[in-house]
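Morning!

This is the sequence you dropped in the shared folder:
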Amino acid sequence: MAQTLRTRLPPEIFDLPVEKMRAGWYTDAYFNHTRDTLLRDGRHPRVVMQIFQKNDAWLGGMDEAIAILKLCAEVDGLEIRALYDGDKIAPYEPVMHIEGDYTAFAHLETPVLGTLARRTLITTNVVHVLQAANGKPIIFMPARHDHHRVQTGDGYSAYVAGQVVGAEIGVTTDEQASWWGGRGIGTVPHALIAAYGGDTVLASKKFVEWAPEDMNVTVLVDFENDSVRTALAVADALGDRLWGVRLDTSESLVDRSLSDEMGDFKPTGVNERLVWNVREALDERGYENVRIVASGGFTVDKIRSFEEKGVPVDAYGVGSSLIRGSNDFTGDIVLTDGEPSAKFGRHYRDSSRLELVT
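The structure's back. Tokens below.
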């Protein structure tokens, strides 16, 4: 497994709504009420808060959470110790230790926990998919399945997962790639094919006329539900400009190339037999260098099954399954003015892995 970089993104990169966060707009009301009560009473307890979650996971969102504390806390002087994005974490292990005047950061607990929860979920999901794919590239494709405001951090979480595994991860929007300076990638889509009257070959030719020379041209070949015929036609038309074809057959359809083979396998969607048919047809025509990208309903389990059976996929496009699930975080005040103060069942946990944030 690759070693993650022990560096942190600068707080300014996250473009946080600082004034609204300082005003408690993103915070559960009871934390704002707690802070207001303490301030009215003139009480400024010095606390230690420890943040943890309950799964085996890979950490995401830590740099963003640190930025929230650094830019939105009411006073300086908080001592923050934390793990790094991409660190493997165990159940109940502290990932962050915050020490200081509680009224300085009480109103930030909700966005800190929410950031860690969302980003760790994405990072962990992508790590699992990359591991299942045995080092093959993954295209991170959930942008169309969620609100546009989550793209930036989710894309970076996917990038972190790629660093963890040491495998290639591509994202589909420039916003997803913005924190590390990448660019979005994409194929010749159904929309362009439709714009040329359903003619995949014509759309592909026009795309190549526009595309930069260094772009890896990949073409969707399922528009007419005849992936073998379309893949060969596109390969004949584009020659060396064709990097790959992408299979994306709907889960409710059976590709025409399978009409004489049904009976002993599930024929719908992008299945093993369809991939083999396309691969063998391309190879027989002399297009051994044309890659196959598979997408549409892929999950960790489906990718793992394909890899175990040696299905000749060169890269996977994965969408909504990468943003599903949960990875909740909890923040506990475990010490107050130097004395134990955790609720029953919780306690201060020492961790030599936490590093001081400067």
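Headline: The CA atoms of residues 48 and 99 lie 4 Å apart.

More detail when I'm at my desk.
O.
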